[in-house]
């Protein structure tokens, strides 16, 4: 069940909790969620491609976040990465 499908009472409580947070608490929460999301994506990449080096995992993470075209411009593949 995603946030859009949650019970209306639960959703209201979540909204109340977010509104009660200071801006600093909201930023901290978003940083924590971003770190956990990237860890989950990295784990998925490693599971699907156990042969990937650390740099290859990082590049694939960036591809998933920002797209192949941007990554090809910003971080071109090496001959042995193909």
Which characteristics define this entry?
mainly alpha
- How many strand elements? 0
Radius of gyration: 18 Å
Our count of domains comes out at 1
Largest sheet: none
Average pLDDT score: 90
What does this 3D model show about the protein?
The chain is built from four helices and no strands. By secondary structure, it is an all-alpha fold. It is elongated, with a radius of gyration of 18 Å. The N and C termini lie far apart (37 Å).
How do the strands and helices of this protein lay out in sequence?
Layout: H1 8-20, H2 23-48, H3 54-66, H4 68-74
Helix pairs in contact: 2-3, 3-4
Structure, briefly:
The chain has four helices and no strands. The chain is mainly alpha-helical and 82 residues long.
